[in-house]
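Hi W., the 1,3-dihydroxyacetonephosphate complex you wanted:
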Amino acid sequence: MAHSPLPVLSPTARGPVSGLAPDALPTPLDYAALSRTELEERIRARKSELNAVILGHNYQRVEIQAVSDLLGDSLALSQEAADTDADVIVFCGVHFMAETAKVLSPGKTVLMPDSRAGCPMADFVTGEALRRMKEAHPGAAVVAYVNSTAEVKAEADICCTSSNAVEVVRSIPEDQTILFVPDRNLARYVEEQTGRDNIVAWDGYCYVHDDLVLDELDAARKRYPEARVVIHPEARDDLLAEADEVTSTGGMVRLAQEHDALILGTERGLVDQLRERYPEKTFVPLSGAAVCGNMKLNTLSKLAWCLDHRQHEVVLDEDIRRRAEDALRKMLAISGGWTAPSAEEEELELAGVRPKGCGCA
Ligand code: 13P
Ligand code: SF4
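Structure:
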């Protein structure tokens, strides 16, 4: 399992919520000895003391999902991070998601329960490598999938998530070359959906989705012939060609409301969530091996430790943050959830009368 670089997470950094909770235990291991009920009580108490919100990605363990204030896909979570009134955002997901929250809410403290929870796909491309790619393609527009570091987003013209990648690419003039980083599979899917032939894709991928294979899909279909097949666009194109629907994890949650049986080509955490929510329905993982070990680094005991110790805090270089924010807000303006401020609102923001980034569609 690869890890995102650690420097943006500063275990010693102290934000506005520094200081231990009075009854904090020394290490995450001490928290692991507590019962689930004790951990949940602690988490709820600290959350209200800190005015914190817990954001959880759809791939989180079910016990983390149970204490999350918002569970969602990358787009929903970034919209929430941009709009929340909380002072502290605790991100149960991977590194790039917590960074995105910090980029969009610089005045808030953003914490992660485990600083090693990185996304190997995001690590495929660095800011330096992307700058070289841009030099080789002058005039091209850069689209950065949100599964990328803040440094990479800072080099991009616009970001996208799996739920709005097609829409984002359609917003770019047809004759302009697009550099799409870091997911080659999502790039190919977008190319196919938009009919473009000018997308230059980085050669990155998600090990969880890239490993899904047709044999497994055939076996699942034989066992559950009535189930609709829904696959995440990070999977390979031969698999996507067989899907009834291609959509983000948030899209899968919506489809689960409408259908009684689904074969899900994505990480297992989502299947666990849907089975808990709809025990009478049939939700089948396309592959039982589709587990993102990075997402699973977050546990309930580390979450309790994180709130008690106010760690690990995400800290970003301000120049990188600002440039990454531009690319993210352009995306949010296209997808809803945030609208660019009018000239009058911008003046109020500059004067500190209106909070920056409070616009919502
Ligand atoms: P979603 O935006 O669809 O939740 O995907 C995030 C992710 O990391 C998929 O692997
Ligand atoms: Fe990254 Fe894949 Fe894990 Fe999503 S599932 S966080 S893309 S490694």
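Residues 318-335 form the longest helix (18 residues).

W.
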